[in-house]
């Protein structure tokens, strides 16, 4: 079974260089990975270099400075250069006449938006506006839509809010290692076609470690069908990020 890691960070100046990620991927038979830009970083040169240096192993989710007047044009240039996604916070707004310019441009370019933030931001009206304005935009909410973040309150109401977001057919979740009850509750609501595995490298190295993040996720989902497993561990990612 192919495995694609849909949420990794690499950098020559922060966290780890790409070679450290490749070590873990090769050791655990992970075929591809999505390189997700660091928050606050809009220089995507290193990720592009990694994609080109290791052809077929990586795709890049970029970030742009939303305050820049040419942010939308910059995103178009990055997409033309091979970017497969854009990283935005759920409440991200651009300066200028069109606050939703980056979301709109991503939708026009058919880029997947990898979105990061607390659960409250995903449940808030500004994000609902995005989903309703761009119903054909694929959004991948990182860390189980914020549920796996340490700032999640873990309440029943919050979990119901995440479940309710499934009414938007292009809203997806990364399946970070979380409480088994939650993962298994979300699976029948979202379906395997809207879930995908993610390691959260290299942050995972300070918690359970890359090997456990993958192994425990495989064990957690051992009881579902092979078709569903293949979807979660590779199929959804192939579609969202156009991975061959």
Q: Which word captures the global form?
A: globular
* Largest pleated sheet: 8 strands, parallel
Count of the separate structural domains: 1
Measured distance between first and last alpha carbons: 15 Å
* Total helical elements: 11
Strand content range: 5-15%
Question: Whole-number average pLDDT?
Answer: 95
CATH superfamily: Metal-dependent hydrolases
Reported by name, the CATH topology is: TIM Barrel
CA gyration radius, whole angstroms: 17 Å
Instruction: Give, in order, the helices and strands.
Output: EHEHEHEHEHHEHHEHEHH
Kindly name the structural category: alpha/beta
- Low-pLDDT residue intervals, each spanning 5 or more residues: none
Helix content: 40-55%
CATH class: Alpha Beta
Please state the second-level CATH architecture. Alpha-Beta Barrel
User: Strand order, biggest sheet?
Assistant: 1-2-3-4-5-6-7-8
Number of strands: 8
Can you give a write-up of this model?
The structure is a single chain. With 244 residues, this protein is an alpha/beta fold. It has a single domain, classed as Metal-dependent hydrolases (TIM Barrel, Alpha-Beta Barrel), CATH 3.20.20. It contains 11 helices and 8 strands. The chain has helices spanning 18-27, 45-53, 71-80, 101-109, 119-123, 125-133, 142-145, 156-164, 180-190, 210-220, 226-241; strands at 4-8, 32-36, 58-62, 85-88, 112-115, 139-141, 171-175, 195-197. Helix 1 links the parallel strand 1 (4-8) and strand 2.
């Amino acid at each position: 079974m192919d495995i694609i890691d849909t949420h990794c960070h690499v950098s020559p100046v922060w966290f780890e260089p790409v070679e450290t990620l490749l070590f873990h991927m090769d050791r655990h038979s992970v075929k591809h990975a999505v390189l997700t830009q660091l928050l606050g970083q809009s220089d995507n040169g290193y990720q592009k270099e990694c994609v080109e240096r290791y052809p077929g192993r990586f795709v890049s989710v970029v970030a742009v400075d939303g305050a820049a007047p040419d942010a939308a044009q910059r995103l178009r240039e990055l997409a033309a250069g091979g970017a497969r996604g854009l990283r935005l916070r759920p409440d991200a707004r651009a300066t200028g006449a069109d606050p939703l310019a980056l979301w709109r441009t991503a939708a026009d370019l058919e880029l997947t938006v990898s979105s990061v933030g607390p659960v409250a931001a995903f449940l808030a009206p500004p994000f609902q506006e995005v989903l309703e304005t761009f119903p054909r935009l694929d959004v991948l909410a990182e860390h189980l839509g914020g549920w796996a973040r340490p700032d999640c309150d873990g309440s029943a109401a919050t979990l119901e809010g995440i479940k309710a977001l499934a009414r938007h057919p292009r809203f997806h979740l990364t399946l970070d290692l979380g409480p088994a009850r939650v993962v298994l509750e979300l699976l029948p609501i979202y379906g395997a076609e809207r879930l995908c595995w993610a390691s959260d490298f290299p942050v995972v190295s300070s918690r359970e470690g890359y090997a456990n993040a993958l192994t425990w996720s495989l064990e957690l989902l051992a009881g579902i069908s092979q078709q569903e497993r293949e979807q979660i561990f590779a199929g959804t990612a192939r579609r969202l990020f156009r991975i061959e």
